[in-house]
Amino acid sequence: MLQLLSVLTLFISVVAAGEPSTSAAEQHLDLLPLSHFRQYLRINTAHPNPDYASAVNFLTGLADSIPGLRSQVLYFTSPPNKPLLLLTWLGSNPTLPSVLLNSHLDSVPAEPDKWSHPPFSAHRSADGKIFARGAQDDKCIGIQYLEAIRAIKINSPEFTPLRNIHISFVPDEEIGGFEGMAKFTGSQEFKELNVGFVLDEGQASPTDEFRVFYADRVPWHMVIKAAGIPGHGSKMYENSAMENLMKSVEVISKFREAQFDKVKAGLAANSEVISANPVYLKAGTPSPTGFVMNMQPSEAEAGFDIRMPPTADPESMRKRIAEEWAPSWRNMTFEIVEKGTLRDFMGRPLMTPASDSNPWWSVLKEAISKTGGRLAKPEILSSTTDARFMREKGIPTFGFSPMKNTPILLHDHNEFLKDTVFLEGIKVYESIIKALSSFEEKSSLN
């Protein structure tokens, strides 16, 4: 009834404004999803203090306005301050493996003084750009999932999914997902969903092809430390802390350069090589004016952000670090914090086959093709998403966000998404949801 009243209200306002009445329903189908998108963007879910409660309340209300969607809020932390919203559209054969559509509630921080519009205003410019933190990463797909289901129910009221369709809105993805999707995939509630296939977030595409990702790189945060005898700044001797550290930095830099040469030569994509980027150096003896310049320190350290593709051999990398990058015989020590695994529960690389050998891939590709869309060559994502937690379970998972002809602005100032791109994405998900939920193949490739 509320939807009908909103359509009638819009119809009257459009006629009163002198617009052709035949366009009223079409305009409503565009304006309502855009309004929901902008309302969601105005909820500040940026770290370090994301307003999860307001976001979940808004999304639950939105889901309740779509007939047939069940909702539940789950908590896996104590205190229970990190809600996970799970929505379900029941299929006619719930014994089949289900389909999960995932997005995350949280966003990275924004620096308002670096933006042309307040980052949580969801300002819509004259040319249709909606500026907001989370516009691309990834509040767009969460609303698109819901609006696609709403559109299916309006445009195809006779349609009933064969499989259960689940939509998850998870917390903490931007800070690793360890108290969000990691706990969810390890729970009994997740096990009972019998998930056979997952779509998670992807990235914008600057071209007219949609991007799709079959794997993520895994971060390793490495700190190397060097020790040595302190001495006068004028003295030259072997095995000082700074000398040992600089030797390691040189070795790591050569490795980085060799990996980067493959990218520059076109032999591999950025996401297909191991990157090792220095992020800090720490050494010296502080003084009131800076550092003591005539004293060589006894300790020095450096931090590196290493990104490992699933094709890499983790044992080989650990050996390289221990023997070449931070060898103990050079008074070096190291610490690695691995922010995930490169292998699933069966020891296989965390990659979902993006070929016709994977029936889910074929269904996805055909569904996108039916909308007139084209997929670019499948990629490994250069960064990391919650998709890795599903792949660890052996569940086929692709990263996909239907944003083409759009600059890649995740985590950037002035993040935006054009209204036409957002609306096109809803139509793409309509086709995808219909196709995936009607897929009769029982094997989930687990």
Automatic annotation (TrEMBL):
Its cofactor is Zn(2+). One of its GO terms (molecular function) is aminoacylase activity. Zn(2+) 2 binds at residues 137, 174, 411. SUPFAM superfamilies: Bacterial exopeptidase dimerisation domain, Zn-dependent exopeptidases. The keyword Zinc applies. InterPro entries: Aminoacylase-1_M20A (IPR052083), Bact_exopeptidase_dim_dom (IPR036264), N-acyl_aa_amidohydrolase (IPR010159), Peptidase_M20 (IPR002933), Peptidase_M20_dimer (IPR011650). The active site is at residues 106, 173. Transmembrane segments: none annotated. Binds 2 Zn(2+) ions per subunit. GO terms for cellular component: cytoplasm. This is Peptidase M20 dimerisation domain-containing protein. It comes from Cuscuta campestris.
